[in-house]
Design a protein that fits this description.
hpI Integrase, Chain A; 6 strands; about 10% strand
Amino acid sequence: MNPADSQPNKLIPPDVAARAADLAADSNERDAMILLTLAETGIRNSECRLLEVGDLYRHGTFTSSLRIRPETSKCARQRTIQLTHSYQAAIRIFIERHRSNEEGPLCHAPLFPSTRGHGFLTKRGMIAVAARWTTAAGQRCTPHAYRHALATDLMRVTSPRVVQQVLGHRRLETVMRYMHPTVEDHRLALDAVEASRKRFVDALAKGPRS
C-alpha cells in the first residue's frame, strides 16, 4: 500500500519524525521548523499555527522558553514550555533569516506564516505540512501524532503531572490517553521491579539460616 493512501498514524515513530524534518530542511525551512516545533514541544495544531515571533521573546530579548497565549490555547490558559538548547539555536537562526528586519525580530508577526507570506497558517495548512513530509518519510501522520509521541517519551523519564503541565491539560486523566507504552517499556519496568527485589530473591534462594 502506498503510504499516502493509508490512514494517518496516531503516534509518529522517532525515525519517521527525524526523516520528515530532514527532508523538509532540504527545501523548506519553514516546514522543517514547524515539524521540529511539534516534536520538541508537543503543542496543539492551533497553538503552533498561531504562534507569534514574540512568543519567544521577553522585552525584546530571546528566552529559553515558549509562551502559549491564552487566546490560542484550548483551555484558554497561558502556559510556558521550556526549550532544549538545540531547538533554541535552530529557531533563532530561522527567525534571523526569515522573521526579522533591520530593526530586529518581527515580534507581532506569525512565526510560521502562510505560503502567501502574510497571515497565519490555517488548520488545514498545518495538517498538510505534516502529511506531506511524514508521507515522504514513509508513514503519514497528523500534527497531533507529534503530541502523542512527546507525551509517551516524557512519561518514560518524568511524572504525569509534568506531562500534564507541558501538554496543557486541565485533567490528569486526559494525559493518560496520550500514553502509548511499548513492549520495551514493559520489559524495562519488569527489569526495574526485578532489580528492586533481587536481595529478597537471593535470600530466598539461599534458604533458611541454620
